């Protein structure tokens, strides 16, 4: 299949690697130093836990032209960056687009693409479970033995699901389909925002943070408050196990947090640079918009925001 991965950061680079190894004709869109790296050396990834490095040759472009047609377009980037690429995606004549990453307004983005495209646009949303960081010349990818993407539409089944499945048929990558990705994505950032208060509370020193039992219990309570905001607005917290963990299994949640913060994985996933400041701030704004609509108190969340390095509201 002819596939474009729009965005060549840590997550997009790994996705492109998987798709290339699956036998697809993959193009990556990149700019600046990353464009030069891909053109000279290919898509170089150090797989952190697997103790190996891979290098894949890919086609590389710096701009998406309207006449560049792909069977699938995966757009992999930070939430606040999606808006800047929507006009180019809408103008492009490819008909199937998957926006991958945190997203507080998927419905708005889907509506924009469908209203402003010269062709019928089929739009899905996904979230890839992997992490990592960038170093000159290569990406470090932190992942388990099988990376998965949660993917789906906005309250409807995807009639073009077989096209997505075909792209991954020869890979070890797992696709988990959700019918309502709007609810899933909102539930997800209600979890990750409180967790990302932990590192700033101790200037990034997770060894100190793990000893602050009060802080960890506040984080767990704040997650539940976020769930309550969604429930008040009529959303179903998805997956249900997330709601159960924060509301009825807090001791288990607490133990999981303690373990995670004590390991190298915790530093990567919950460190002060795990989620960029601009993405955190954009998600904060989305949370406060939802909270304002729900009009319910969130005392634990409010207390945690004192730790945030972002501008106070």
Count the DSSP helices. 14
The pLDDT mean sits at: 94
Strand order of the largest sheet: 5-2-1-6-7-8-11-12
Strand content: 15-25%
Q: Which spans have pLDDT < 50 for at least 5 consecutive residues?
A: none
N-to-C order of helices and strands: EHEHEEEEHEHEEEEHEHHHHHHHHH
Query: Rough shape?
Result: globular
Domain Ketopantoate reductase N-terminal: 3-152
Protein name: Ketopantoate reductase family protein
In short:
The chain is an alpha/beta fold and 313 residues long. 47% of the residues lie in helices and 19% in strands. Strands 5-2-1-6-7-8-11-12 form an 8-stranded mixed β-sheet, with helices on both faces. A 4-stranded mixed β-sheet has the order 4-3-10-9, sandwiched between helices.
Descriptive report:
This is Ketopantoate reductase family protein. Residues 3-152 form the Ketopantoate reductase N-terminal domain. InterPro entries: KPR_N (IPR013332), NAD(P)-bd_dom_sf (IPR036291). Helix 9 (213-232) crosses helix 13. The chain has 313 residues and is of the alpha/beta class. The relative contact order is 0.11. It contains 14 helices and 12 strands.
